[in-house]
């Protein structure tokens, strides 16, 4: 008995789009609330995120971005910010936490090609937790954990 072939799962990852398809500036705010950006959304060249006594989740694993450099500026006050970056983007991260934490979890080193888009993240927080994680969005463990979290909501 032979089994039918199993189709390959759809690959997830950022999409490179033309410069004109992304806005120049944009951002989000979480003021004593929760704000989430995920799915396929255009990442502006300059994206500013403000979190005050709230929670902010930025999922960049399926983001649409232009070639070259994109900047994310994060400011947090007594809040929590989680940023998930796909491992095939180049990332530079700088931050200054005060009475808080800034964690950068790099994942697999060297997964991005030298000509991949560059994402510069600058983060500052006071009494806040800012966690930036490089993930492989096509890894089964990561995808299963995300589905479980959605079901629990």
What does this molecule look like?
With 153 residues, this protein is mostly beta strands. It has one domain (39-152). 8% of the residues lie in helices and 48% in strands. It is built from 1 helix and 12 strands; from the N terminus they run E-E-E-E-E-E-E-E-E-E-E-E-H. It has one helix at 140-152; strands at 15-16, 25-31, 34-37, 46-52, 55-59, 64-65, 69-77, 80-86, 90-98, 101-105, 118-126, 129-135. The strands form 3 sheets. It has a 5-stranded parallel beta sheet with strand order 2-4-7-11-9, with no helix packed on it. A 5-stranded parallel beta sheet has the order 3-5-8-12-10, with no helix packed on it. It has a two-stranded parallel sheet with strand order 1-6. The model is unreliable at 1-9 (pLDDT under 50).
Total number of β-strand segments?
Answer: 12
Quaternary structure of the protein:
single chain
Total number of domains = 1
Radius of gyration: 17 Å
Overall spatial form: globular
With strands numbered from the N-terminus, the spatial order across the biggest sheet is: 2-4-7-11-9
Total number of helices: 1
The unreliable regions are 1-9
């Amino acid at each position: 008995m032979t089994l039918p072939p199993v189709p390959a799962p759809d690959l997830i990852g950022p999409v490179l789009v033309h410069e004109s398809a992304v806005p120049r500036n944009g951002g989000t705010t979480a003021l004593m609330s929760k704000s989430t950006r995920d799915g396929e959304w255009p990442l502006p060249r300059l994206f500013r995120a403000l979190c005050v006594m709230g929670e902010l989740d930025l999922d960049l694993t399926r983001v649409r971005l232009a070639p070259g450099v994109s900047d994310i500026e994060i400011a947090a006050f007594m809040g929590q910010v989680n940023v998930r970056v796909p491992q095939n983007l180049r990332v530079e991260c700088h931050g200054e936490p005060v009475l808080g934490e800034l964690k950068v979890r790099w994942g697999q080193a060297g997964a991005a090609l030298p000509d991949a888009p560059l994402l510069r993240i600058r983060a500052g927080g006071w009494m806040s937790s800012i966690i930036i994680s490089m993930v492989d969005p096509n890894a089964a463990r990561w995808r299963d954990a995300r589905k479980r979290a959605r079901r629990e909501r």
